[in-house]
Specification:
The complex is a heterotrimer of chains A (474), B (273) and C (313). Chain A has 474 residues and is α+β, with helices and mostly antiparallel strands. Helix content of chain A is 31%, strand content 22%. Chain A binds chain B through residues 116-117, 120-121, 123, 127-132, 252-256, 283-285, 288, 295-296, 299, 302-303, and chain B through 19, 21-23, 48, 50, 52, 54-56, 62, 64, 66, 95-97, 99-100, 102-104, 152, 238, 241, 247-249, 251.
């Protein structure tokens, strides 16, 4: 089947340049192709020199690669951002209430809104967190909500990233590099700044310190180490936050309190911005073979002496199996209609949904509920017959493991490609910070772009690139 | 029955460590078939032993001790009064609905062989009969043997070897039950031997499975019986790791040797005051 | 600061220093072996280069014979030698990545740039000329890194720990040259060689980039005991044992001052420094140069262990 024509963020559906893109469109018409190309190479050199790299799983040789950067910015009008921002705040507020409930009174289960087995038998549900109080009842301090756009007015939430969402360093570095390379383009726009993100993050983290912490709490960033794919981001953020970048071995627990080893002896730690998965956090509570974690960390956490951001067990909020229930979950806690819609989703665990999915495999996107990064999924319209047949077998064998969604015509943005400037599909990951005092969102986020023509996969592990995201000031 | 228990774990270090942190799940709680008369924990090093309840309702103690020391001793002893309830466990602390205990863990992963075994054993729809059949067949198929398995051995590995200790048999029982949709969980505790041998090299382990209308019922695959008044229930978990008596880490030092000594005795006389 | 951060900075500096030292030894050896045999004597200079690098045992477990090919490969490129120049830079860059936040941008760019360029040199040099260019590039890279540290780092504990790494490594390196070549540096009455040793002495001085310095300090032709004096006791000479310990004491005192607490590392460094300050070459020759150097190497290692114990573990 033919793909539906995608909405282009610059030229809409009718080819008329939309107001937010007026200046950019004019600039693109003026700029010589070799200048763009030259800037593109310059940007790559800058990235390489600063060392912004990411690791690709399963590639021992090329463990450090650059994510391709596209120099043409993606632009959002003030009004569009306004809607997004309200929608994101609302969604994250609901996610926090949901997490508190799941690990507490379980009212959402009792009300039958989310099926019990999807929670209790879900590997990302952490029994260890049951009945556990977390400081200030905040579970989800840092969320990355993936949003896609299908027309002038409709944004869908594609996925909630509630564990250790990454990518914010690219948001910051992309802006930094754009400012260096295209000062004249900035002078034609009024772009809302994102550079205050580290400040907002630090304020958020300090605000959620346990009550027992001193007036100026000690925050650290816990990384699995240099071999982690997002290590660059960890060190970048620690640097911008002005906090220690610690590995598991730098921390220890004594008498229910977490300390770090310093050249001047042990120093108490109050807030851990952890970028280690739950499984590896504490060998005494989770995987006993984890060398990345801190023995006894959970006991300090349970004693209320340290804040983990995000809390343990937040995976139960971003699980693909739970995703389709989010609109009802949001209504349940807030009594409001969701501002940002969910992508319509068929749950293959339900027989009538499954029947529909099996009948329409060629037009649907089918995802594994526990997969990530674009792996283990079927994109019906681009798959061949053999792939569909193979997937049909997998799906029938274990329908509970899959959800399906219509193939969305993700919006496109002008992008530098071999042949010049052409539209490519994009998504957006804004970062939402929840502190004790308030929710903070810097205007923008990480725009990911599928560089291959017609491709809908924006993941960096599968050849996606990034763009700077400009939110225009009104 | 009144039962006296003493459970000592001794660590000897090749080189003194600079510190040790441990989580202990060594303290039993009461339920209808079990009343804890007295119980104490003694650690050979100075430390603060704060009790805490884990997610499953087990009483845990976490302690950290500062080295150097050549040896660390953790001793628990106490007295428990038990009653035979025909294996049915009532009045225990329950923090989750039974369906939680359908979760698979790495130690209880259902291998195709275990799934087949479970399917073949299921000759009726009556959950209790299925569980008894599992108990019998497991006891017949998998030999009790201390040599080939470790604490990290999975149900699948042990089942492939057809050998294992009480921990392994329990894991297989749990995996098989869950594969049939019957919630099952791991119990760590002690067992008073009928032959009067009081000295044991380790604690005991068995399983509980959920039977509709009856509740949780305890099955001891190593002894091919339902739990009796000889079973002292200490900790419950999804698998061994969740109910492990001791989980710890040591900082610095060389290798360590661990020695466990357990004695389980019927009280010589019953005294009343 | 985090102990691990201090530890990484310390080793980062040590490895960069070691790479430079290896390059100097290789360059001096190449030069010496290029001369007709009549000028240099019968000794196997490649074997002594391996000994000076402190890795004889490891070398001979991989190679039967020490010659130009095996030694340059082992000391410069070999992945199986943990202290080859290549591995030194690899480890240094790995350490740098682990402590990105403690480095200035300039330092990071210096070490990361070196690492990226290292790949261009590949695993082998096609010619002596190219190898020489490689060795000079190594020395240049080390200078660039050291210079960027000197010019851009805050003068706080991070800087001081990195300096400790530099000076402990440097003292060890100088002592190793002395340990291998001591027999060439004995006073005249014990001296068995002849004027041919001139090239050996100049080669030693080259290994520590002190040939010109020698002439400025002594205004004399090369005398073995003066070479020994320059490398051991002369505080003006940046690679001498005395100068290294002057700097070690200074940096350890700064750390103690900032932390308001001192310990075994400070006491040990002062003891060694005092010994070097009070010593005279005549006395050292009397006691035995070889024994003196052997003892120094042990003391230096002990100081390293004390620093580790007190701050880095």
């Amino acid at each position: 089947m033919a793909l539906i024509t995608a909405f282009d963020e610059m030229k809409g559906l009718d080819g008329q340049v939309r107001p937010a893109y007026a200046a950019l469109s004019q600039w693109l018409a003026e700029v010589r192709p070799e200048v763009l190309d030259f800037r593109r190479k310059e940007a790559e050199l800058l990235f390489r020199r600063i060392g912004i790299t990411f690791a690709v799983y399963g590639e021992a040789e090329a463990t450090e690669r650059l994510i391709p950067f596209d120099v043409i910015p993606r632009i959002l009008a003030a009004k569009e951002w306004d809607t997004l921002q309200r929608g994101l705040e609302q969604r994250v507020k609901a996610l926090n209430l949901y997490l508190k409930d799941i690990y507490g009174k379980r009212e959402v289960l009792k009300a039958g809104i989310v099926p019990e087995d999807l929670v209790f038998q879900n590997p990302v549900f952490r029994p260890e967190m049951n009945g556990q109080k977390v400081p200030h009842d905040i579970y989800l301090h840092i969320a990355g909500i993936d949003v896609v756009r299908v027309d002038a007015d409709t944004f869908y939430v594609l996925e909630d990233n509630a564990r250790t969402p990454s990518g914010v360093s690219y948001m910051l570095e992309n802006r930094e590099i754009m400012l260096r390379l295209f000062p004249e383009l900035f002078s034609r726009h009024r772009v809302a700044p994102v550079e205050n993100y580290p400040d907002e993050l630090l304020a958020t983290l300090k605000s959620v310190a346990p009550d027992v912490a001193s007036g100026d709490p000690t925050v650290v960033l816990l990384t699995p180490g240099v071999f982690n794919s997002a290590y660059y981001e960890h060190s970048f953020l620690a640097d911008k936050l002005g906090v220690e970048l610690v590995e598991g071995g730098d921390l220890f627990v004594k008498g229910g309190i977490v300390y770090m080893r310093t050249t001047q002896g042990p120093k108490r730690v109050d807030v851990i911005y952890r970028r280690i998965d739950d499984d590896f956090l504490d060998p005494l509570s989770f995987r006993p073979d984890s060398a990345l974690g801190v023995a006894g960390l959970m006991s300090a956490y349970q004693a209320g002496n340290v804040t983990l951001a995000n809390a343990v067990g937040t995976g139960i909020a971003d699980d693909k199996a739970i995703y389709s229930y989010m609109p009802e979950v949001l209504k349940f806690y807030l009594g409001e209609e969701p501002i940002l819609k969910n992508v319509p989703t068929w749950r293959c665990r339900e027989p009538d949904h499954l029947a529909y999915v099996l009948d329409h495999l060629e037009e649907l996107v089918v995802k594994e509920v526990h997969g990530s990064g674009g792996y283990g999924m079927l994109i019906g319209p681009t798959a061949d017959k053999a792939q569909i047949a193979a997937f049909r077998i997998r799906l029938k064998l274990n329908p509970r493991n899959f959800i399906a969604q219509p193939t969305l015509a993700l919006s496109t943005c002008p992008t530098c490609v071999e042949a010049g400037v052409a539209p490519r599909h994009v998504d957006l990951r804004p970062f939402v910070l929840t502190g004790r005092d308030r929710i903070r969102i810097v205007p923008g986020g990480l725009t990911r772009v599928a560089l291959k023509q017609g491709s809908l996969v924006v993941n960096s592990s599968q050849g996606g690139g990034t763009k700077d995201t400009w939110v225009l000031d009104r | 029955m009144r039962i006296l228990i003493s459970h000592q774990t001794v660590y000897r270090y090749e080189r003194p460590p600079t510190g040790v942190i441990q989580t202990l799940r060594l303290t039993p709680r009461n339920h209808d078939g079990q009343y804890v008369v007295g119980w104490r924990i003694d650690v050979s090093e100075n430390c603060h032993l704060a009790p805490h309840e884990d997610a499953f309702g087990n009483i845990t103690h976490v302690f950290s001790a500062e080295g150097p020391f050549d040896e660390l001793r953790v001793l628990v002893e106490g007295e428990v009064e038990t009653q035979d309830t025909g294996g049915v466990v009532r009045g225990a602390v329950e923090r989750f609905p039974p369906s939680l205990f359908l979760r698979e863990t790495p130690l209880t992963e259902v291998s195709p062989a275990i799934a087949d075994f479970a399917r073949e054993t299921k000759t009726s729809d009556d959950v209790l009969s299925i569980l008894h059949a599992l108990l019998t067949r497991l006891h017949a198929d998998v030999a009790y043997d201390e040599s080939p398995t470790l604490v990290t051995t999975t149900a699948a590995e042990s089942f492939a070897l057809k050998r294992g200790v009480c921990q392994d048999l329990t894991h297989i029982f749990i995996a098989a039950s869950r594969s049939l949709g019957i919630p099952a969980r791991y119990i760590g505790g002690h067992f008073r031997r009928a032959d009067g041998v009081a000295n044991q090299e380790a604690g005991h382990a068995w399983a509980e499975a959920f039977v509709p209308d009856l509740g949780w019922v305890a099955f001891d695959p190593a002894n091919k019986i339902s739990a009796t008044d000889s079973h002292i229930r200490v900790a419950v978990g999804l698998d061994y790791l969740g109910a492990a008596p001791v989980r710890g880490t040591r900082y610095g030092g060389g290798s360590e040797a661990m020695e466990v000594a357990v004695t389980v005795n019927q009280s010589g006389q019953q005294t009343q005051s | 600061m985090l102990s691990r951060t201090a530890d990484n900075l310390y080793w980062l500096a040590r490895y960069v220093e070691r790479a430079e030292y290896l390059a100097r030894i290789l360059e001096a050896t190449q030069r010496l072996t290029a001369m007709p045999l009549a000028y240099t004597g019968e000794t196997n200079e490649w074997e002594s280069a391996v000994a000076t690098a402190g890795c004889s045992a490891a070398f001979f477990s991989h190679h039967k014979e020490a010659n130009e090919e095996t030694v340059t490969d082992f000391l410069a490129f070999s992945p199986s030698n943990p202290s080859s120049i290549r591995n030194c830079f690899e480890v240094a860059r790995h350490n740098a990545r682990s402590v990105r936040t403690a480095l200035t941008m300039e330092m990071w760019e210096a070490i990361n740039g070196t690492w990226l360029e290292l790949k261009r040199f590949g695993n082998k040099s096609s010619s002596r000329e190219e190898f020489l260019r490689f060795l000079q590039w190594v020395q240049g890279s080390s200078l660039r890194f050291d210079g960027s540290a000197y010019r851009t780092m805050l003068r706080n504990d991070a800087y001081w720990f990195s300096r400790l790494g530099v000076y402990l490594e440097r003292a060890d390196n100088t002592a190793r040259i002395l340990d291998v070549k001591y027999h060439l540096l004995l006073p005249p009455q014990e001296h068995v060689g002849g004027p041919l040793d001139y090239f050996q002495w100049s080669s030693i001085l080259r290994s520590v980039s002190a040939l010109t310095a020698y002439h400025w300090v002594y205004r004399d032709s090369l005398k073995p005991w003066l070479v020994a004096d320059l490398l051991i006791l002369n505080e003006q000479m940046p690679r001498s044992l005395a100068s290294c310990y002057e700097n070690l004491v200074q940096n350890l005192d700064r750390i103690a001052g900032a932390y308001g607490r001192q310990g075994p590392a400070q006491r040990q460094a002062r003891t060694i420094r005092t010994r070097l300050q009070n010593a005279r070459m005549e006395g050292i020759f009397q006691q035995g140069l070889h024994e003196f150097i052997g003892e120094f190497i042990d003391d230096n290692n002990r100081l390293g262990a004390a620093v580790n114990q007190q701050y880095l573990a």
